[in-house]
């Protein structure tokens, strides 16, 4: 492991329908209360269980919300962003930035749940088995001569 931590940043359009508990998530950030240093954007701080966002499944805690119904969220005070969400209507379109942490460089083409390399056991077990067989053969040889 080289210890390097990389991030893959993706953007996605998420359409939510307001439910009984609103859109089903809380936000942090804004120009007056930065959540991430050097970034006054609006971020998802919590997904409410069984809320619209949780039922949809795509919005995640830590996601940055870039726009609401096409309105950019740059350079907004926190309360202005809250008001924008509250007045966004029943059907809400969010432009969201996901930032996924990836350790040790780029992602290769892998299947879901597929390991990224050969497990150490798959190397050590055959090597150990060959060593035991070689030691046994060596001992048998020396016992006969």
TrEMBL record:
Its main location: membrane. Residues 13-100 form the PDZ domain. It holds the Pfam family PDZ. InterPro entries: PDZ, PDZ_sf, Synaptic_Scaffolding_LAP-MAGUK. The chain crosses the membrane at residues 118-139. It is found in: Membrane. SUPFAM superfamilies: PDZ domain-like. Keywords: Membrane, Transmembrane, Transmembrane helix. It comes from the Eukaryota. The keyword Transmembrane helix applies. PANTHER family: DISCS LARGE (PTHR23119), DISKS LARGE 1 TUMOR SUPPRESSOR PROTEIN (PTHR23119:SF51). This is PDZ domain-containing protein. It comes from Rangifer tarandus platyrhynchus. The lineage of its organism: Eukaryota, Metazoa, Chordata, Craniata, Vertebrata.
């Amino acid at each position: 492991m080289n210890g390097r931590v990389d991030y893959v940043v993706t953007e996605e359009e998420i359409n939510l329908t307001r439910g009984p508990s609103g859109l089903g998530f809380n936000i942090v950030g804004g120009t007056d209360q930065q959540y991430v240093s050097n970034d006054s954007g609006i971020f998802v701080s919590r997904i409410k269980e069984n809320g619209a966002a949780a039922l949809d499944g795509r919005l995640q805690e830590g996601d940055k919300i870039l726009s609401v119904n096409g309105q950019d969220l740059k350079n907004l005070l926190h309360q202005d962003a809250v008001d924008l969400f509250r007045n966004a209507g029943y059907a809400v379109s969010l432009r969201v930035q996901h930032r996924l942490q990836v350790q040790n460089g780029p992602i290769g083409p892998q299947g879901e749940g597929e390991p990224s390399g050969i497990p150490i056991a798959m190397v050590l077990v055959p090597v150990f088995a060959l060593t035991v067989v070689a030691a046994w053969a060596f001992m048998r040889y020396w016992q006969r001569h």
